[in-house]
Amino acid sequence: MITAPVAFLGPQGTFAHSVAKQRHGERELKPFPTVDQVFDFIKEEPSGLGIVPVENSSGGTIYGTVDLLIENAQSIFVQEELSLDVRLCLAGQDQGTVRTVYSHFAPLEHHKDWLKREYSGATLKPVSSTAMAALAAAEDPSGAAICGRDAALLYGLKVLKFPIVEEETNVTHFFAIGQGVHESAKAQKTALVVGLRNDCGSLCSFLAPFGRHGVNLTRIVSRPVHGHPNSYLFYVEIEGGVAKSEVAVALREAAGVTTRIDILGSFESLPRYQS
User: Fold this and answer.
1) pLDDT per position as a tens digit, 209-224
2) pTM of this prediction?
3) What secondary structure, in 3-state letters, does 43-89 show?
4) How far apart are CA 261 and CA 274, in angstroms?
């Protein structure tokens, strides 16, 4: 049987790549430079999967992914939630000659005190991803990257420091997306796109049924509607699948006060992977 590739936010060596390898190592893995292009691939491949980041415990919600889920509601669905315990290293060619440190802006900001203390003379250069940082460091004899160990190995760098600092757990959450609705009996979450009237108390009226029926909301994000000033849609995640009676009742009651409600999928949240 021919199985369609699994697309991921690339290049090779990203944390999305790490998750894709651990979840779907037996399938062809196909990198794309942007989340938009991962969604475009899914539109063209009915049996394809895509791995895209949705939230980082340090950096927060990844709004570009949320906007694309809203834009493609009813055609692309969340099939699984995956997560990765992100552990970063400093990697380079020679510890003694680091003049430039490359990374995504978030790790550079998160490690700025350590960098100031250990590499005060180095220029900090933000790039689009930690994998691209590893690639840049591989091409720069006096460069180093804050990246994952997979990326360091992939691009032939030495791990100069790991972990960079002893710190609290940093987790990135990803969605596996596809065209098909993949509702599991073990579904732990349901994702929704919700539109509400621009009336006083409309959000409260929407939320009330979930409270009455004991359904916990794990995420709610307000996003502007392009071309319609002062208009918003809400991306919402709740605990439990739509097959659970209390979820079904709460959704039915909440739908009565919405202008739009689309279910993006009921899905499992799998155990966390290690980077």
Assistant:
1) 999 999 999 999 999 9
2) 0.89
3) HHCCCCEEEEEEEECCCEECHHHHHHHHHCCCCCEEEEEEEEECCCE
4) 35
